[in-house]
Structures are given as C-alpha cells and as structure tokens.
User: Which sequence fits this backbone?
C-alpha cells in the first residue's frame, strides 16, 4: 500500500518570551538564558502541516488547497502573525511557548477542523534554520 | 535495529495545466482557479527519492550512486525536464498532473527499476518552496 | 554619503517557450535546445526589486511597504502569476521571454509607477537557483 | 583594477515593534498595521557585512576573520541577540526599528571599529526571506 | 497518541577520501570515481539530530537545549570540524567515510550519551544540497 | 542607461588547507587555527559568475548559456571539482587558497576566455552559507 501525503508550509513572524512567574529571576535566567530577557524577542516561524488521504480521482488532489489554506489562515496565521505568542489563549495561563509546545497548540487547533477525508499526520514548527519540533500521530 | 536510508534530489523545470475536458469552463475555473489558465504554466520541480538498504561493507554505500543517478536520469529527468507534464503517457489520458499524482507517477516509474538490494521508501515532489507531496510505502 | 536601499522579493510560477517563427525548426532546436520544446515549460520565478531613497524620519521607511506591495501585485504578480509569458503584451510580438528580457519588461513596468521619492535601482529575475538576470541603472 | 571584498553573515533573533507615541492609536494602526500590535513580535535577523581591502600577501586574507568575528560579536550579536530592538540606545528615543534604520544603526556601530586596512562597503539586514535593506557608501 | 520530537542541526566543514588500500588503483577509480582523487576533498556537512520524549511540563522542553548542544559539540563538532574524516578512530581502520557510514558513526557516538528521558530517533547527514543519509531506529 | 547582467552559479566540493611552510607550526596555528589542521578539510564551494552585455535582439540572450556553461565547466569545474585546491597550479607555489584568493584565481581563469561581446563583472565564491568573497572590476 502506498500512502500519499501533502504538505503545506506557512510562515509568519511572532514574538515570545520564556518565563515562569513561580520561579525566581535567577531560576528563570539559569534555565531559560536569553529567552528569559524581557520584554521578549521573536522569530520568523515556519509551520509545515502534513495531511494524508486518497487523491480524489477527478481532481488528483488529496485536499482542496484553497480550503486547506483557508483553515491554516484562520486557525494559525490570523491569530499568530505579528502576535506575542504568550498572549494566545493556550499560553496565557503560563504554558511556555517553546517550539515543542507551539507544535502541540497548532496540532490541537487543526486536528478536528480538517475536511473529513484527510488525516493530520505531522505538524512541524521551525523556529529557525537549526531548530524545529514535530508532532506526529504514532 | 537501525535502518539506513539514502536520499538523492534532482531538479528540473516543467510545464503543466489542470483541466478536465468533461467539465465546463466555469467548473474548471471554480475548481482549479489559475491552474486552469490556458495554455499552462510551470514550476521548478524538485524530486527527492529515498531508498533504504544495507551499506555494502566494502564500499560503505547502500547503492552505487552512479547507477542510481543513471536510473533517475533515464526515468525522470530525461522525459520530464522542459516537458509539458500533461503530455507524458501517464497524464495524456486526462489524469490531472497535480503534485500528488506526479509523485505516484514517479514512484511507479522507479519502483521496479531499482537495484535488487535496495527498497524504494519515499518519493517526495516539491512544486515550490511551500507545497510538496510524498508517496511512502506503508 | 550612505545610500539606503530596500529590496522586496516576490515569487510566482509561469510558463514560457523559446521560439522564433522566422527560423526553421532545426535552427530553433540548435539555438534554444530544450527551451524550444512545444508546448512549453515553466519556472517558479523569483523577482527581487530594489529601490533607494531617504528613510522618512517619522516612519523610518524608504517607502510604504503596503504601497510597494500593491504596485508589485498589480504590475507583476497579477498579470504574470500562472500565466504563459509569451502571451504578455511585451512578448506577444515574438520577443523571446528569456530571463534577461523578463527583467527588462519588469523594469519598464515599474520604473514610472513607483512613488516619487524613491528610485528604482535593480530588478533581479531568478529563473532557478543557478541562473538570474539583473537590470541596473548605470 | 579588481576590487576584492569579503562578506560575513551573522544571524540572531530579536523583537521589535513600530509605534510613534506622538501619534494616535488609529494613526499608528493605519500606518504600521500589524507591526504596531502590542507588545511586539520579532524576526530571525540575518546581517551580511561586506568589507573591501587588499588580500594580505602572506595570508591571502583581506581581514583576519577571527578579528572581524570578534567585532561583529561585540557590536552586533551580543547587544542584539534575543533583545527587543526598541530598547537599544539608538532606538530608545523613539526611532522606529525598521529594517532600513537597523541597517544604519549597524553601519554606525561598525564603520569606525574595523581594522584600518579595510573599508566597510555594505551592511545588509534581512528581516525575512522577502525583505531586506542595505546601506552602501556611495 | 501524539509523539513529539525535536531536531537540532549543526554544520561543519570536513575532508574525506574514498579508497580501499586492498584494491588496485583502477578498481578504486572505477568504483569511487572522483572521490578517490588524492589527497582528498571535503564538504560542508550538515547534521540533523532528532530526539523524542515528553515535553517537561514546567519548561515545555523535551530536552535542555544547552545540554543537547553541549553533547553535539563534544561528540560531533569538536572532533569532526575541519578534520579529515578518514583519520577519525571509526574510519582509521579503512571503513569508507561515506554519508551512510558517517550517519552510523554519529548515531553510535550519540545513542548512549543522551539524557535518560529522551530517545534518539534519527541522525541525518547532508553531504550537500542533493545527497543525504539517515539512520533511524525501526 | 540600463545595464543588463546575467549570473550563472556552479557548485563543487573541493579540499584545501592553510599553511605557510616558511612559518613555524605555532605561527601557523596562531594565524590559521583549524584551517591549518593536516591533512586538510574541504567545502561545498558555490561560484557565481556575473557577466554583462547587450541582449542579442534575436535570441534575447546576453550570452549563449551553453557556451558559458562550457567555459565554466572547462576552466573551473573540471579542474577544481573533488580536487585539493592547494595542488592547482596557482596555489602550488604556496599561495594560500583562501576564499579571497580563489575568487581571484577564478577571475583570472575566466577574464580572457569569455566571448568578445560580454564583460566579466563579478566572481563571487561562497565557502559556506556565511562567508563569501567577491572580485569586481572597479
């Protein structure tokens, strides 16, 4: 059996900061280093979303790309582009906006909003050229 | 057990167009948007072919790269480079040359033409920086 | 004196073909090789437009990026994205849509449509990773 | 005469925000759009510094790369990496940290701190893949 | 179940040469081509190391990045950067330093030196833009 | 007046080492650091050659790309690909194969071998993503 997947990448800049308010300043500094520096910094995030399914025999497509782009725009780009990630609902309670956690947040935003005939396979979040996190269904 | 794979990437420009002749013009436009525009457009395709196998203890190689390159040249680059994909035998009957379908076409061209000691694992076709399809044996 | 410039890049796929109708088939083949193959192929073009001017002391910007983006969208992306370049008005008379000529065409489309306080410095057109042409005012 | 130049690239993430405190909220929004969103966002900046000079006949180098790297580290990376650019001394008075202005700030930090035998030619600051500013001596 | 992984990339230049001293010169040439040319050549290697584990609920991290970077620095960058790979202990006995073998060597150097809560998933070694090898636990 | 240029990029791996035999070991180490490590290392070099001229009105090309590619192949790729740069005639007398010197060597190899209607404008040699040298006629 051959599995077919399609991956769509989106990019946006955002800000973030690593800080636990229940830790002392020196604990935060020791653990988070420069990521603790107030008031924060940011990245050009790149998110690669992989879905799998059967190509529609009429169109040759796993998913209507316009529909997928609309979902990614509404669930990810619109709320996160030029935003400070710590202020998103998922992070506002103190969850640290690491690359790992951001990939989970995006997974959860997308998983149940995709068209019924496709399955979310991977959400990869690249913070920069040399660091990325991935959520995969195992 | 550690599995070892090797990936070779090739690139070539090609043309294509999305059109179903059994659909009206407005159906084609609604579904395929700018990809329906006659007489077509094109992309710099990038194809990444992954094979796995045991490194030969004498050469340290899974596959003779010259042999693999020859196969990729003959089965993929020679017929597809600067070609109009809709005119390939696989697409000439009306199959839409989407990224998904192109990855299947390349999979089928390669699967039984590789040396016996290696197995085709993945064919990834990148249409541009932000969209790619992948066939994988599951 | 320090000169400040700003460069904006845009990308779009398009199709093209090299053919002189006043040449024989074998002359076309000899001179244009695979670029002569009917009905054409295409590329993911990348266009980098450089303008220079004085940063506005209030905004720190040479040019309003929204305004520049609007001009690039209207003059370049809208007419060229998913188009067959040979059918653009500038190429319809038989001018070959080479990278060199495309950079001139884009230069001419932009030169007199930029805001008055900035000057067009360079139009660079990348056909692929390894080939690009540039128009510069000398 | 052949001129020889050498370019060194450095990368770091930083935060910034565009806001003029002497403007109303709606003026800021109209002019700066999402870049005005509090408390700010950020980018993975890439700075490319070009110097020219005569290659030393003994070493074949225009400049000792370790020395140049030390200067870039001290003047640019150390103060800007994971920082909020608006808080740098040059921007703290309200100068907007645009790509254009950041390239000037880096030019000024470097110009008189380079070894005597080389000349600063260009400072290019890339905010993302599709936007960059450049200062050049004209 | 969602599996979370983190990937860290490192880059370094190194030299290598393919030669079996138990083969004749013409056997070496026939099999290894230009990779046999004395005294050797080299590449800018890029190594991408993927680990998986549970994000720590306090820090949102699978692994302390400073700790992981220290391990990669000590086990990979320090001994391999600007080195001639054939002289590493693993290759000194005549094992050919192919991309496949190098990925195994790095896998073995890392596997038992990672913190206890994370698991090594993949070691990918890129020799250039168009060729890479990968070790994965299967 | 608009100047048109065309740039062609080529890539090849090569080896090199920095050493002055008239210096002591510790002088070499102090000045060249890891680049002095015997027996050498290497890089994936990328060379970008820019020429300018008038586009031929019949073909729309500054230069026949096949002819330019042949020259680059013969003068640069053939002798340098998988070679140890210190053994090239230009470096064999002890000239250090730095990026700066390599750009001069390539300039000299190309300058008088290009077709008569085009002019060599720039030779850029990239040693890696973050370091490159350029020769330009001034």
Assistant:
């Amino acid at each position: 059996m051959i599995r077919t997947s399609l991956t769509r990448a989106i990019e946006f800049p955002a800000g973030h900061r690593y800080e636990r308010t229940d830790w002392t300043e020196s604990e935060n500094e020791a653990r988070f280093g420069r990521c603790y520096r107030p008031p924060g910094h940011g990245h050009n995030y790149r998110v690669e979303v992989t879905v799998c399914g059967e190509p529609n025999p009429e169109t040759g497509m796993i998913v209507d790309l316009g529909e997928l782009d609309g979902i990614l725009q509404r669930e990810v780009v619109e709320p996160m582009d030029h935003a400070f990630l710590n202020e998103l609902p998922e992070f506002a309670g103190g969850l640290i906006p690491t690359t790992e956690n951001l990939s989970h947040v995006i997974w959860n935003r997308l998983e149940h909003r995709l068209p019924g005939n496709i399955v979310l396979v991977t959400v990869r979040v690249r913070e920069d050229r040399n660091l990325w996190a991935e959520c995969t269904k195992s």
